[in-house]
Amino acid sequence: MMFGKSIGFLFALVGFVFAVPLTSREIHNLNARDTIPDKYIVVFKDGTSDASIASHITDIKSFHTRSVRNISKRAATAGVEKTFSMTGFKAYSGGFDSATVHQIIQSPHIKYVEADHIVTTSTVQSGAEWGLDRISHRNFSQNPLNSYRYAYDGAIAGEGVTVYVIDTGVKITHQEFEGRARSGYNFVGTPDIVGAGTDEVGHGTHCAGLIGGKTYGVAKRVNLVAVKVLGANGSGSTSTVIQGMQWTVTNGVPGKSIINMSLGGLRGKAFSEAAISVRSDGFLTVLAAGNEGRPDAFDSPASSSHLITVGALNIQNKIAYFSNWGPRVDLYAPGVDIKSAWINDITQTKVLSGTSMAASYVAGLAAYLIGGAGPLTPDQVIATITNGATTGQIVGREIGDPALTGITLGTLPISPLGGATIGPNGGLFPALTVKDPLTGKNVNILDPVLTLGIKDKIAYNLFGA
């Protein structure tokens, strides 16, 4: 017996030194772009008890310490760093060497392990407030004099509702916010409260201004809370974003709280499951569809179902060239040449374009709706906004719902380059076959499940004109 134990211990030591490389069959998103080296998100199986989770994490911490004996290597793989516990989603994340990851995978409690990856804002750099006019009027057309007006009920305007802006932070002292914005929590670098009230990038401030600014915002009486998950370069990690989502659920009020996430990345299973978990906890999440000009099934969390996913529209009522598109984009909102608050002083503004701007308008609409109707479930808000959207005005849809247009992807011309197809408004999508980052399978983008059915819906303020 002693001999057998010695042999087993020897094999364990050899495992530390000659760790088998990880493969994409073991790790979701391992070969996706923008993965963070040696960083992983570990998701527990449904029903795993808190005691089993605590025991597992303790064991992994010990294993990692033994495995990473070299000090420099230990610094590169910090071990368990963050834990998550939301309805239907329990997980942890951290930096691990391959031997520790193999040990994690062997646990009977683990559902899957996913490579952590970089998450970014969804803005296109690019003057005017046509967007508020568009969402408050059924019949809209470009005004050559740039004379637009926003029709709304000032007695409602999001009163008593809070929107959590999970982003780069918010310049809470900006005059647009009239003291209604506050610092929630900063998860970038050393976690703190104050840091979320600063914004080195400007993206979060711009989005907050569209949600609830006094001049540029939809819901002009809403409360805004900055949850900072993206750093000074406008990017962050999936695990940090999930931290921000969890903090919001812990601190917000179901039925009267909205999450605006104008960010995205490659389709990640953990990210999407966390977003759906937030909805189960009673929090509506509004998502940017993404700016890659491609089918929506490949971006996360915008590819999650049963959430409000928003694409961008230009002033001619055309889907913006950069906007992602497809059946999981619930509706479109103004997203080209949109003016809002900026960060260099308390009065500065800037014009930006992106699905981030479109999503922010819809988050403002959701706040407006709840402010007028009282606490609502995410499903109630989603149904009201999507059913009340303006239809019949999106111009030049090369791809649309076959039931409405008779057009299918199979009838569209294929580029003579031999590896592209035509997207909305003539944009090229670069390959007929792509790898689904979630399943690892090659998927033809002509698959109707992925790409048919652009929804002819433009966000509309039900209290508009």
From TrEMBL:
Keywords: Collagen degradation, Hydrolase, Protease, Serine protease, Signal. CDD domains: Peptidases_S8_PCSK9_ProteinaseK_like. The active site is at D167, H203, S356. GO terms for cellular component: extracellular region. Residues 39-121 form the Inhibitor I9 domain. Residues 158-393 form the Peptidase S8/S53 domain. GO terms for biological process: collagen catabolic process; proteolysis. The keyword Transferase does not apply. One of its GO terms (molecular function) is serine-type endopeptidase activity. Residues 1-19 form the signal peptide. It comes from the Eukaryota. Hydrolyzes gelatin, casein, the chromogenic substrate azocoll and the cuticle of the nematode P.redivivus. Immobilizes P.redivivus. Belongs to the peptidase S8 family. This is Cuticle-degrading serine protease. It comes from Orbilia ellipsospora. The gene is ALP1_1.
